[in-house]
Amino acid sequence: MKFFINGRFLSQKLTGVQRYAAEIVKAIDVLLGSEQTPASLRNADWQLLTPMDASEQLQLERIKIRAVGRLRGHAWDQIDLARAAAGGRLISLANSGPVFHRDHIVVIHDAQVFRRPDFFNWRYLTVHRTMGQLLARHASIATVSGFSRKELAEVLNLPATAIPVFPNSAEHFARTKPDPGIIARLGIQPQHFFLYVGSRTKNKNLSVAIRAIELLDRPDVPLVIVGGDNSKVFQDNSGDGASGLLLAGRLTDSEIAALYAQASAFVFPSLYEGFGVPPLEAMIFGCPVIASRADAVVETCGDAAAYFDANDADALKQLMLERLATGALSVQERMTQQERVAFYSWKKSAKALLDHLAEPATVASAA
């Protein structure tokens, strides 16, 4: 039996989807050396197939890494990868893959291209809508949350029961050693700033956080914005020029960890998510979380966050004021956070994927 993993994510810029793929692959690699792997998979041949322009590398012991083909991007997926993976079962973890592979499971992280077309430019929208529809007809679809399963079932005309869920996790961030020097480098005071981490794209709804900090009108408590811009794909939502902001740009994980540990609260105002990992990262470091009521975010955070309507900047401002007055998390709040973080793990998700692979292969074709 042969299993091939789509390694195109190693040639892409690291975002949440690429992080998910890398962590799942590493967890599978560990599980393959244990008794937790289903017996039918233990003697299988596992290969991670990568394009020639892969810039990232994974240290794996049981999964062989093999560069194949000469093409790039979607062309590599549809031609080089499809050819190299012929005769085996293919696993694509990052939203896309060859649409006509005969035995293929694809993790699609959310249904944004169908539910919120206003977030994307027309070219990206056309490619990914078409790909999603074709994959729904020719591959098995999986996803990362109950919310995304419901959304994908509706937009792709699939039975929800046929879409397995292999959730994200934030435990990789627990291995990150904070770099406290970032506080001085940014010229901010511990416990006197709010934190936003993410791309400056329309679905992230940064404009509401910016409006809330303006309403707060506390020059001594800025909103620190960490992350880059990707307006070539998404409709721009930069917020440049607004008062009360500190645009930190791209930072290392160690710097971000220190900001989580010292922020008054982490603000997550998203309009739409398939899961929502950054709030869990914040919880690892005991950072209070103020998040929108987007369905997937509530599913992920449970009772470990304070919530506001994503379009209500005044409600966000009120929660900011309450957090400033309350200060650090209580013992009970910290315990609730820790329980929520522990609910998700890459090992559990990888084990669920392996168990699914051990079942007879089925394809839930779109109606």
Topology readout:
Blueprint: E1 2-6, H1 16-31, E2 45-50, E3 64-67, H2 73-84, E4 89-92, E5 104-107, H3 112-115, H4 122-138, E6 140-142, H5 146-156, H6 181-186, E7 194-197, H7 206-216, E8 223-226, E9 245-249, H8 253-262, E10 265-268, H9 278-284, E11 289-292, H10 295-301, E12 306-308, H11 313-326, H12 331-342, H13 346-358
Parallel strand pairs: 1-2, 1-4, 2-3, 4-5, 5-6, 7-8, 7-10, 8-9, 10-11, 11-12
Helix pairs in contact: 1-13, 7-11, 9-12
User: How many discrete structural domains?
Assistant: 2
Biggest sheet descriptor: 6 strands, parallel
Return the structural class.
alpha/beta
CATH class (first level) name of the largest domain: Alpha Beta
Give the strand order, joined by hyphens, for the main sheet.
3-2-1-4-5-6
What is the H/E order? EHEEHEEHHEHHEHEEHEHEHEHHH
Poorly predicted runs are 230-241
Q: Based on CA inertia axes, which overall geometry fits?
A: globular
| Head-to-tail CA distance between termini | 30 Å
The fold-level CATH name of the largest domain is Rossmann fold
